[in-house]
Design a protein that fits this description.
Elements lengths: L8 E4 L3 H12 L7 E4 L2 H9 L12 E4 L8 H10 L8 E5 L4 H9 L4 E4 L4 H18 L8
Parallel strand pairs: 1-2, 1-3, 3-4, 4-5
Helix pairs in contact: 1-5, 2-3
């Protein structure tokens, strides 16, 4: 299996409980990835663009993005990522509670890499997070950082 050099993850999640659960699931694995959490769409873009308090933030290998976020929605964040030449190659996965078909269609129209509905069951939720980590950071070959 291929293991990507950069395995940092940006988690954009406004629900503190989900944020903590996802971060714990990643931290409990044997992989050496670092997970950075932000709680709204504006903070996500600042992190990715190294602005303000995030001026020294690393470029993540993967972005996990909630759909319903304060300040900027997940769709708005994704649109800005895809419009930015320096960010557009970073894989983005929606990890959300929405099963709304319009949300799913809009996400794929904006070139999301995957759309995953958060399971309600705790064990399934942790299994999904571990699968994302295994698939996206060990199996998939990701491009090196683009400038």
């Amino acid at each position: 299996m291929n293991e990507n050099k950069n395995s940092d993850i940006l988690l954009v999640e406004d629900n503190p409980g989900d944020l903590r659960l996802i971060m714990e699931a990643f931290n409990s694995s044997r992989m050496s990835n670092k997970v950075y959490g932000v709680e709204n769409g504006e903070a996500a873009l600042a992190f990715l663009r190294n602005e303000g308090e995030y001026e020294n933030s690393p470029r993540p290998a993967l972005i996990l993005l909630d759909l319903s976020l304060p300040k900027k929605s997940g769709h708005e964040v994704l649109a800005e990522i895809r419009a930015d030449r320096k960010l557009r190659l970073i894989p983005v996965i929606f990890l959300t509670t929405s099963e709304n078909e319009e949300d799913i269609i809009k996400a794929y129209e904006l070139y999301v890499n995957s759309y995953i509905t958060k399971p309600v069951d705790l064990r399934q939720f942790i299994a999904v997070v571990k699968f994302i980590e295994e698939y996206w950071l060990k199996i998939v070959k990701l491009p090196e950082e683009q400038n």
